[in-house]
Fold this sequence. Notes:
Layout: H1 15-30, E1 36-44, E2 48-49, E3 52-53, E4 60-68, E5 73-81, E6 92-105, E7 108-118, E8 128-137, E9 141-148, E10 158-168, E11 173-184, H2 185-188, E12 190-204, E13 207-216, H3 218-224, E14 231-240
Antiparallel strand pairs: 1-4, 1-14, 2-3, 4-5, 5-6, 6-7, 7-8, 8-9, 9-10, 10-11, 11-12, 12-13, 13-14
Amino acid sequence: MKHAIFRAQELRAYLPFAAFAIVGAMSLGATAQAAQLSGNAALTSDYVWRGTTQTQGDAAVQAGFKLAGDSGFYGSVWGSNVEFAPDTHASSELDFTVGWAGEIAPDWAVDVNVLRYQYPSTTVDLNWTELNGTLTYAGNYWLSVGWSPEALGSEESGTYTQLGARFPVNDTLRFEAAAGYYFLDDVYDERYAHGQLSAIWAVKAPLELRVTAHGTDSGAKRIFGDDFAGSRIEAAIQASF
């Protein structure tokens, strides 16, 4: 579960998000005629985030929209149902992202963004902000780093890293593998590793079927408990438009 420590929201959590949002909005506004709107929707058997379930193993309905300009700046919103500890009454998650993505050299691309996690209608403050960067090579290999001064809604910092690759078999089938490591020493005096392996079938545009095997180490179980960490299989049908 993302949240085990909660606090009252501080103004500083909004400052980097607000600044980046203003810059992104101005850039998109300047290129409104060239901006492209895209979206996605998914039905999954389990919402798994960084190796741990966000729905206690139950199904989730998810959808998102992204507006991107030719300048490389973009903004997006994404939502899902969640199920945390009963006393939080958290039932939904909304993620707001503003960032810039583009090619920096032949075969090399970068994506830098500010991501805001919002949990409406809860009895405690679960919201937090994360800075993220992803470096991609040849469209199939990536390294991502995320850092937050209020990791998982706490008052402490945390850093997440992920190394991944995709392996196309043909036009309709590909495999993806990723390994992540979450440094949460300041929050829990603990850190954990997780891995995932996915098979994705492009059934018929725009539909895809995805089956993913997730696994975490004992560190995740010590932080979140056996019900949220460990090994699990996730199956999803998703569409992009």
